[in-house]
Automatic annotation (TrEMBL):
Transmembrane segments: none
The Aldehyde dehydrogenase domain, residue ranges: 2-96
Stretches with biased composition (Low complexity): 92-103
Family recorded in the similarity comment: Belongs to the aldehyde dehydrogenase family.
Acidic residues composition bias: residue spans: 112-123
Region annotation Disordered: where it falls in the sequence: 92-123
A Pfam family this chain is assigned to: Aldedh
Name of the featured protein: Aldehyde dehydrogenase domain-containing protein
Taxonomic source organism: Prorocentrum cordatum
Keyword Oxidoreductase: yes
C-alpha cells in the first residue's frame, strides 16, 4: 500500500529546469525565477531561492539569465530591510573577492531607526 506524502524542502523554493525545453519555455522559466525574486524583493513564500539546472542546458540557461538580469536595469537593486541585513549581505559579498561587485546608496529612509542611504544594495 502506498501513502501519498508531501515533502517540505526546509522552507526553500527551488526551480527545477530540465533539458528538452523549447526556447519559449526556457525563457519563461528565467522570467518566472526573476519575477519571484524581484516582486516584493523575494520576500514571499513562492520566491525561488535557487535553480537546479540540467547540465546539458546550464550554459544556455546562465546566458539567458544574465541577459534578463541586465535588462532589469535599476529594478534589480534590492532594498535591504535594515542595517543588520545589509552588513550580513555585504560581508558575504566581500568574502567572494574579485568575482563579485556591488554598489550602495539609494535614499531609502524610515523603515528602521538605523536606516540610511547605504541600505540599498546592488549585486
Amino acid at each position: 500500500m502506498l501513502t501519498p506524502v508531501t515533502l517540505e524542502l526546509g522552507g526553500k523554493s527551488p526551480a527545477f529546469v530540465d533539458r528538452g525545453l523549447s526556447d519559449e519555455v526556457l525563457d519563461g522559466a528565467v522570467r518566472e525565477i526573476l519575477e519571484t525574486k524581484v516582486a516584493k524583493t523575494g520576500q514571499f513564500c513562492c520566491a525561488h531561492d535557487y535553480a537546479l539546472v540540467h547540465e546539458g542546458i546550464f550554459e544556455d540557461f546562465c546566458a539567458r539569465f544574465k541577459t534578463a538580469v541586465e535588462a532589469l536595469g535599476p529594478k534589480r537593486n534590492v532594498l535591504m530591510i535594515g542595517r543588520r541585513h545589509y552588513d550580513s549581505v555585504k560581508a558575504s559579498v566581500d568574502s567572494w573577492g574579485s568575482s563579485a561587485s556591488y554598489s550602495s546608496g539609494g535614499g531609502r529612509k524610515g523603515v528602521e531607526e538605523d536606516d540610511d542611504d547605504e541600505d540599498t544594495f546592488a549585486i
